[in-house]
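Input chain follows. Return structure tokens only.
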Amino acid sequence: MKRSACLLIGVAGFFLQAASPAQNALMEKIERTVTLPRGAEPLSHYIRRYAYLGDQTIVGVYVSRDIDKNGPARSWVDAKQLPHISDGGCGIVIVFYDPKKNLPPDGTCNPAV
């Protein structure tokens, strides 16, 4: 399964866009305040992709560098280009953030599908 995970991430990597200053500020705020789940690696061990879901909610998909060895440490993508990985565990961490609520986000390990 990890081979297909790498392929999906590699394909998504071709569509990375430069983050705007506002998007960079949001990513920095999320990364300063996120609580990673028990069993997760330190934040620096993950390749981090962010996107808007709808108008307001931001989702972050953190992929372990053991799975995705390429790409920038952090980037903003279209929601359709977020990695879709069916492996469970903390090799993938999902984070949701709602700027209107302004609560520190909690990360969750990817559930097995």
